[in-house]
Amino acid sequence: MTQSIINSTIKPFSATAFHNGEFVPVSEQDLLGKWSVVFFYPADFTFVCPTELGDMADHYAKLQEMGVEVYSVSTDTHFTHKAWHASSDTIGKINYPMIGDPTGAITRNFGVMIEEDGLALRGTFVMNPEGEVKVAEIHDLGIGRSASELVRKIQAAQYVATHDGEVCPAAWQPGEETLAPSIDLVGKI
Predict the structure, then answer these.
(1) CA dist 86 to 52, 66, 75, 154, Å?
(2) Nearest to residue 40, comparing CAs of 67, 3, 13, 2?
(3) Catalytic-residue membership of 168
(4) Which one is catalytic: 38, 49, 70, 138?
(5) CA distance linking residue 183 with residue 189, whole number of Å
(6) What is the pLDDT of residue 145?
(7) What pLDDT is stored for residue 185 in this prediction?
(8) DSSP conformation letters of 148-189
């Protein structure tokens, strides 16, 4: 990436997702008005990917309680997502939309396309209700992500968004003290 994606606005897209047993249209408009996670992974029917998507499925109810919608994305088609959902117990428990991006347009918009392979890196992007990216995390293919750590990051992003002038220190958890940056804190932390 030549410039940071943080605070950029999601680019327009149009795709089809497999969601709740149906094929549904999804666009950037669906991500507006609520907190959203766009969760890229390399491919269906692979190895690390189902562990990540299953972990996200296990945390989905918590994210929904927080007002967050999750969208998984790979360069597979929505048809492949349906087949994987039907054939894997782990993937079968997914209740969030699984977006097919066979042209790679969405994957390129987020800067996570591996061009020579036509696959996505492991990229996680959290957007606020205005569609601005507030969290971006990109992993190499062999490094799986943690949904519980993602939940904590979203809690921090939501807290900062509603508490002007406050910031969350490292490993902050809801209910813990935050910081109010000022000259008085310089050199004291």
Answers:
(1) 17, 28, 18, 30
(2) 13
(3) no
(4) 49
(5) 12
(6) 97
(7) 79
(8) HHHHHHHHHHHHHHHSTT-B--TT--TTS--B---GGGTTT-
| 145, 139 contact by CB (below 8 A) | yes
Nearest to 42 by CA among 131, 107, 128, 135: 107
| Cα 14 to Cα 76: distance, rounded to the nearest angstrom | 15
Nearest in space to 158 (alpha carbons), one of 125, 123, 127: 127
Whole-number average pLDDT of the chain: 96
- Virtual torsion, Cα 155, 68, 137, 169, nearest 10 deg: -10
Element counts in the chain: helices (H) and strands (E): 5, 9
| Closest by CA position to 122, among listed 89, 147, 91 | 147
**Cβ(121)–Cβ(39) under 8 Å?**
no
* Nearest of 45, 59, 46 to residue 146 by alpha carbon: 59
Give CA–CA dist 63/84, Å, rounded.
Answer: 23
The pLDDT assigned to 186 comes to: 84
Instruction: Please compute the mean of the pLDDT values over residues 56-61 and round it to a whole number.
Output: 98
- Starting at the edge strand found earlier in the chain, the sheet holding 98-100 runs 22-27, 14-19, 98-100, 68-74, 35-40, 122-127, 133-139
* Residue located via tokens 């972990």: 55
Return the H-helix or E-strand segment holding 147: helix 147-162
